[in-house]
Automatic annotation (TrEMBL):
Protein name, UniProt field: histidine kinase
Membrane topology: Multi-pass membrane protein
EC number: 2.7.13.3
Keywords: ATP-binding, Cell inner membrane, Cell membrane, Kinase, Membrane, Nucleotide-binding, Phosphoprotein, Transferase, Transmembrane, Transmembrane helix, Two-component regulatory system
Predominant localisation class: membrane
Catalysis performed (reactions): ATP + protein L-histidine = ADP + protein N-phospho-L-histidine
Tagged with keyword Nucleus: no
Domain HAMP: 199-253
Localization terms from the record: Cell inner membrane
Gene Ontology molecular function, alphabetical: ATP binding; phosphorelay sensor kinase activity
Pfam families registered for this protein in UniProt: HAMP, HATPase_c, HisKA, RisS_PPD
Protein species of origin: Hydrogenophaga aromaticivorans
Amino acid sequence: MSEESRVPFETQPAALETVPAPLDSRPPREVSLFWRTFFLLAMLLLGCIIAWLQTFRALEFEPRALQSAQQLASLVNLTRAGLIHADSIARVSLVKTLADEEKVRIAPREPGDTYRLYNTDSLSRRISEQVKARLGPDTVVAREVNNTAGLWIGFSIDSDPYWLQTDPSRVELVAGITWLIWLGTAALLSLAGAALIARLINRPLKKLSFAASRVREGDFNASQLNETVATSEIRQVNIGFNRMAQRLSKIEQDRALMLAGISHDLRTPLARLRLETEMSVGDPQAREHMAADIEQVNAIIDKFLDYARPDHLEPERVSLNQVIDAAVFSLGSAPDVEVHTSIPADTVVMGDAVELHRVFSNLLENAQRYGREPESGRVRIEIAARKKDDWVLIKLRDHGTGVVPEMLAQLTQPFFRGDASRTSATGTGLGLAIVERAIARMGGRFALANSSTGGLAAHIKLPLAKP
């Protein structure tokens, strides 16, 4: 169903229920500006935290290992000196005092003792090396002796081996967990800050996107943006957008008013002209031709009025079955036209009954005019509908010759004709433009495609009415 005559196009068979990709396909996976900004800021902040942590560890690692080794060596030397210079009675008291007050336990080292070396990470290995360097190569630094965990240092007093057990916290072994806690806290605070910054950046763009969508739908009054925001760049964008929306609204009003006025003013002289033609022209054939020309001009005026209707309307529940039945009935009962419908019972969509009737009347009229089969000259029109998710998908197709693919995108342009000569055209070039405009006003989508089994198919996607 092109708006005007068609160019032959070969096709291959396909099922009637096939819905074209433009209406039935899902958009590709997208990432919003908010999340993209958030991820970039988060990666930047986390990278800075990791770099800072690595730098701090590199600067703090060696001093910490040396300090811890010095503390352990001093503890062993002081304990050894105390035990050497104390008598037997004072030695017992010294060992008890060290255990109670300093949490340092002295125990004999037996040949059968089992132990695990203190070498779990790079810091512990470095501390062990420094302790051995200060106390001697025969010194043993262990993290477990006879299945008892702790920080154990094996040393000798007059060739008698001993174990010194102390709390690992003396060398700040728990600092690794502390750093993890601080790192996690810094990461959470950084992510929260990144989310806040991304939201502040995204908020004016989100408002601009919403306003642009309202302008696209023709709702110019709901697209006003705040012109008093603090950010100068956003304020200038909002001011420019508001002025553009006001200008577009004025142009749209002037266009609708102009088309309506011209169409209305032409009806009166046309009515007089037809009356005078019927009364003054004596030749019946000439009178019939003149009356037909006047009817065609009147039909063109109707198309102008339809196209000039306001863009905004309030959708309501509409029975698709009743609308299509009424449009088919209005088509008449020409003997060479067949219309077959396959619509589920009680299919209700959100839209406008008058607009939908105008849509299907235009599509049926175009199919009747341009969808004749090349061989038989008959017109076979098929209308099918099915529900999918929250939508109703409708397909209206004929069995004519179709159109060349390059022309499909132009068929819904106002005043476009497939004929090279405008004088040979009998239509206005507005039929499919009116259809697309009406479907868009109802929140649906409209697309044309060559059917693989021959002819042209119109695909309509309308919102399904909730029960």
